[in-house]
Write a structure and sequence with these properties.
This protein is mostly helical. Helices cover about 75% and strands about 0% of the residues. It has five helices and no strands.
Length: about 110
């Protein structure tokens, strides 16, 4: 069995690869976070949020908030940007969901 840490067994990446991955990850993260706005728009167009799970929306919001706090604590700008967009998007979807739920009663199963 080979000894050593897992990181020492992985191939090392150069600065170009790391920068490319960081930029790509940030862009994908921003698009994913902002895609929540499409969800909010769709809910508003349908006029119903009965099929949206409020606990899942709260969990998403909490997850983005924790990662945002972590990004702030380590000063990681890409992480801060992605999770700031995620908090905003998740909060908007949650708000639209709650407003629609107040306007229209959802059936219970």
């Amino acid at each position: 069995m080979r000894s050593g840490s897992a990181s020492s067994m992985l191939p090392s990446m150069g600065m170009e690869e790391t920068t490319l991955l960081g930029t790509g990850g940030t862009l994908v993260g921003l698009v994913a976070a902002l895609s929540l706005l499409l969800q909010a728009r769709r809910l508003a167009a349908l006029g119903s949020a009965c099929e949206v799970s409020i606990p899942v929306r709260l969990l998403a919001l909490a997850g983005y908030a924790v990662w945002l706090a972590y990004g702030v604590s380590i000063g990681d700008v890409p992480l801060i940007l992605v999770d700031l967009a995620g908090v905003a998007g998740a909060a908007i979807v949650l708000r639209v969901t709650l407003v629609l739920r107040r306007q229209r009663a959802c059936p219970t199963y």
